[in-house]
Amino acid sequence: MRRLILLAGVLAALPAGAATFVVAAGVERYDDPRIAVLQYAAADARAVAAVFRATGCTSQTVTVLTSQPQGAERQASRSNLLAALEAVVEHAGPDDKLIFFFAGHGVEEAGEQYLLTTDARRSLITETALPLRLVAKALGGLQAAGTVFLIDACRNDPQAGRADADAALTDGLARGLRPALAAGPPGAPRGLVATLLACDVGQRAWEDPETGHGVFTTYLLRGLQGAAAQAGTVTLSSLTQYVQDQIGAWAARAKRPQRPRLLNPDGRDLVLLVPPAEPLVSLSFANRPLAEVIQELATQYNAQVVLGPGADGRLLVSGRLENQPLGSALKALLAALGLQVRREAGLYHIEAATAIRPAPPPPTGPPAARPASALVVAADGSGQFTTITAALGKARLGATILIRPGTYDEQLVLTKPVTLQADGPPGEVHLTSRGGWTILVQQVRQEQEVVIRGFRLTARVASTDDNGGALAARSPGLVKLEDCTVSVTGPRQRTFGVSGGRAELHRTEFVDCVGTAVSLSGELLAEDCLFDTIDGSLAAVYVTRASSRFVRCRWTGEIANPDGVALRHEGGTTILEDCIFDTWCALQVMVGPGTLEATRCQITQSKADAFLVSGGGRLSFVEGSIASVPSHAFWCIPDGGSLDLRNSRINGAAVAVTVEDGSSAEVQDCTFTACGQVYCHEPLGRLTERNNVVVAAPAVQRP
């Protein structure tokens, strides 16, 4: 059963500079449990506000009030609603207009009409509800050229558990829902008030679970978005004709009488708005072929959509799109299918998407050109020095040391800015040590930098008491590691450690490291790097109280430790861009305190979970994909962590998103394919989901 939605509109041909004020309120749940809960009131209010935002209305002129506020919304209480109307009166000018939308319960009590706000009490209607005479009084000083009321309030008896028969529109309530506004100053033109009711007296206005709106609201929104436009504008007469025609056809199919009724005493036909360039989509669908859903979107919103090569329209899809631009809605729908949408001259093309580019291999060409004044080290005695340590002792600040092919078993301590460059093909210049750190950088000032380029860098650590590895940065200066291959043998040591300093990794591979590949408590930039087979470690990359950024990096191989993690973040901020996780381990990414932001990243497999959010950590995962996860794709354990998941694809997870007590998650514009369970929501956890799509694999395998 659908409640009434009433559109009282002043649709004057306003000047180009005129402002439109919108007050949209939707009340689904009431403080008084004796008042029946509604289904789509908040969605109705948000959608109406969004239509006008799409035409250029700003946040300064649009106010949204609901019973469960989100973002900038406010509580739809009696005082807040009156305050919002009074604010319009204070700021509106004579050329402006007001749109007032209310979705909720309306009642008639002792000959007076009321709107039930969130704080209304069923036994104290006259004391707690909002009488329409106060609405008229609050707008008494309004000097706008037009006033538009959108009021959903046909249910005359809102008591929970009552039959649908109590919901028909009464003549008294219909008249009361058209409050008379006080006249403006003497000599001022009188603003027009017209009313378009969702149904006639004695009828009911129905709801439609397929669209998540009332039937009237569904066609009202489509008409405002352009379906009712004539010569580029939507007028009162064109909108009325469109809504009456569409609901008439719906009523015949559904065998449920409903006909919108126009109350327009002045008889004028006035401009309401210029529809947005791209329509806003609201559509629900369950187990329908992709091509059929695309066709419905194209037909309902007068769009041209083309399915190109590789776009399999036979896949079954389920989901809900609410109040989204058509292009964004198509993008969300197609994300999990490996497709993308491209718009050219009003035509939407659906075609194969471009996969994320994996990190390129290290270059195989010759090393960088040799500086003319470089110091040369050669183990065979053909250079100026036979050891790197000796060259470092003679090098000036900023010197370049060229090292010819061979194995150099030394523990190097760098205390000044220099460049160590391999003078030979990649892999033929080997720096190694039998204990401690192969390279230790210290006493380098913040404005200075050390560059290490083109080496095979290893360390052989004998025991856990030997605090060492391949390279450590322990000064505020910048350390750059470029075009290197790094590994460590021994009992669970760090391979590359940054403590309080700054480091950059470019085109470097960490291979066969028995311990943590990168241990970071400083500042790091890693580009086009590989972390492969970090055997026996608790974490391949461990970031704690640091600022780090990984671009086009890849994690692969296997972590033998049963509690192994590909990336562990505890404190600070970590940014991942275009990264790929293909490691066989218990958990791909652990997000503890601090913030981790992942954009366009892929997780292709996991032994158990993909992401774990703990310790109040904040995770943002945008435009990415996750596949083949036998447990949780995202797991927010009960300690106040938060997840922001947007425009992403989740495929083959046992549970896509779990939000336990004290944690929160916001999931928007995502596609879930072949997941055992999409959401697991604990009672005290907070989950907000919007415009997500569930794609079901076809029952019969097709070639």
General description of the model:
- With 703 residues, the chain is mainly beta.
- Helix content is 15%, strand content 39%.
- The chain is built from 10 helices and 55 strands.
- The protein has a 37-stranded mixed beta sheet that branches. It has an 8-stranded mixed beta sheet with strand order 4-3-2-5-9-1-10-14, with helices on both faces. A 3-stranded antiparallel beta sheet has the order 6-7-8.
- Helix 1 links the parallel strand 2 (20-26) and strand 3.
- Helix 1 (41-54) runs parallel beside helix 6 (215-227) and helix 6 crosses helix 7 (236-254).
- The radius of gyration is 33 Å and the shape is elongated.
- The two termini are 45 Å apart.
Summarize the structure.
This protein is mainly beta. 15% of the residues lie in helices and 39% in strands.
Q: How does the SSE layout of this entry go?
A:
Layout: E1 6-9, E2 20-26, H1 41-54, E3 62-66, E4 74-75, H2 78-91, E5 97-103, E6 106-109, E7 112-115, H3 125-128, E8 130-131, H4 132-138, E9 146-152, H5 171-176, E10 194-197, E11 207-208, E12 213-214, H6 215-227, E13 234-235, H7 236-254, E14 261-263, E15 271-273, E16 280-289, H8 290-300, E17 304-307, E18 316-325, H9 326-334, E19 339-344, E20 347-352, E21 375-377, H10 388-394, E22 400-403, E23 406-409, E24 412-414, E25 419-422, E26 429-432, E27 437-441, E28 449-453, E29 456-460, E30 469-473, E31 478-482, E32 485-489, E33 496-498, E34 502-506, E35 509-513, E36 518-520, E37 523-527, E38 530-532, E39 539-551, E40 554-556, E41 565-577, E42 580-581, E43 587-591, E44 595-599, E45 602-603, E46 609-613, E47 618-622, E48 625-636, E49 642-646, E50 649-659, E51 664-668, E52 671-673, E53 677-681, E54 686-690, E55 693-696
Parallel strand pairs: 2-3, 2-5, 3-4, 5-9, 17-20, 21-22, 22-25, 23-26, 24-27, 25-28, 26-29, 27-30, 28-31, 29-32, 30-33, 31-34, 32-35, 33-36, 34-37, 35-38, 36-39, 37-39, 38-40, 39-41, 40-42, 41-43, 41-44, 42-45, 43-46, 44-47, 45-48, 46-48, 47-49, 48-50, 49-51, 50-52, 50-53, 51-54, 52-55
Antiparallel strand pairs: 1-9, 1-10, 6-7, 7-8, 10-14, 11-12, 13-15, 16-18, 18-55, 19-20
